[in-house]
Model the fold of this input.
Amino acid sequence: MRTHGVRMATALACVLAAGSGGWPSAADAAVVICKRKAKLTLRETRCKKKETEVPASELGGARWALVDAAGTIVAQSGGISVATAEEGFYVLDFGSSQTGKSVQVSPTLTAADQAFRGVGVAGLCGGAQASLDICPTGLAADRYVYVATTSTTNTEQQPHAFYVVVF
Done:
């Protein structure tokens, strides 16, 4: 009998997807994080009485930014600003210590920057995990993350768009 219920649910999902013009996308999904006392619960639409909604950003997940070649943040998870940007060297202010976290950079293409490029390099500007002493004066603190983008030969800095993620 249980198998029949699973088949019916699958068939119903297929009918609903076909009727709506296609399969539902992740953007169509509505998930809310609710908290009551110390317990977190995922709900489909809204929290129940005596529960409060918790923004995903408060759960301590990854922080990220998409930065264009000129050093402008195009999109981000929130709370990140560009402290300085010049010729392929960028310093981003995450607003709080990033010590103990992984810093990753990924060169990316944008509509305005589709040229080939080399690798991207990133690290902390200050603190015990600082990999190099290359950040400008006044920005040598563990709240700042540097990113350097390079030419196709990886021999010189060159401005290019990138994603940076800290988790």
User: Anything to note?
Assistant: The chain has two domains: 25-58, 60-166. The two ends are 45 Å apart (CA to CA).
